[in-house]
Design a protein that fits this description.
The protein has 247 residues and is α+β, with helices and mostly antiparallel strands. The chain is 34% helix and 23% strand. Helix 1 packs antiparallel against helix 4.
């Protein structure tokens, strides 16, 4: 009881402190969960490369999720009549486009979407880059089969002919090809230099697990600090305690 006399609590201060403490702890645990997800994602990428035969087998049996973020090597026939230019991609301070085309896996009827990397944009906005693609190409790259849609402010397609300039891959995923092609919901992100040295900008893990853990530590330290502030703010001065005792 003597110790409690040195503290002055109010219901409001307790409620506010507990609320802040719980929110900060929740943010810390959320960052730890994100770190775990990133670690699992990196483990997927470091797993054994999926062969073309295995890729087709999983695709045909509907096991799309098992292919997500797996590396592979595919022999493809590019549908060069259908070229998409995903706008506003920056590389080394220069504006450009990601080039996406449908491609048929050789010795099969399977057609997927392939991101061939970054092309620099011409100086004039009205101009489009010259895209010279081979008909056949062996591509090493990373597969993505889930969460293909992206947040975007606009899904407007510019122009009626190909190549088409778009603001996100959403339009490409949703597009129904007038030629009647059936395109699987699969993206293959070609490794850098797969086509004439063009770089691949896509990174499945932008923020590494270690950074999420560092953020988690910060949130937990802030939660601890909120308790410390509450305790120090609640301590009465020695003189006030003595006055209370002599009353």
């Amino acid at each position: 009881m003597q110790i409690l006399k040195r503290f002055s609590f109010t219901p409001l201060s307790i409620i506010l402190t507990v609320t802040v403490f719980l929110i900060l702890c929740k943010l810390g645990f959320w960052q730890l969960e994100r770190a775990k997800q990133k670690q699992e994602l990196l483990a997927q990428q470091s797993a054994e490369r999926v062969s073309q035969t295995e890729f087709l087998a999983r695709l045909n049996t509907g096991k799309l999720a098992s292919l997500n973020f797996q590396t592979t090597q595919l022999d493809l026939e590019l549908k060069t009549d259908f070229v998409w230019l995903v706008d506003n991609k920056i590389f080394n301070g220069q504006v450009g486009y990601d080039v996406v085309v449908p491609a048929q896996v050789k010795l099969s009827e399977t057609i997927i979407l392939v991101n061939l990397g970054w092309w620099r944009a011409p100086k004039q906005r009205a101009e489009l880059p010259s895209i010279d693609l081979p008909y056949e190409l062996e591509i090493n790259g990373l597969l993505k089969t889930t969460d293909l849609q992206q947040f975007t402010l606009s899904d407007v397609i510019e122009g009626d002919t190909f190549p088409k300039r778009v603001q996100s891959v959403n339009v490409i995923v949703d597009f129904k090809y007038s030629s009647g092609m059936t395109v699987k919901p699969v993206f293959l992100y070609a490794d850098t230099n797969s086509v004439a040295g063009h770089p691949q900008l896509y990174k499945p893990v932008v923020m590494p697990p270690e950074k999420h853990i560092a953020y988690a530590v910060q949130w937990f330290l802030l939660a601890f600090a909120s308790l410390v502030v509450f305790v120090f703010a609640s301590v009465r001065s020695t003189n006030i305690v003595k006055e209370k005792e002599h009353q």
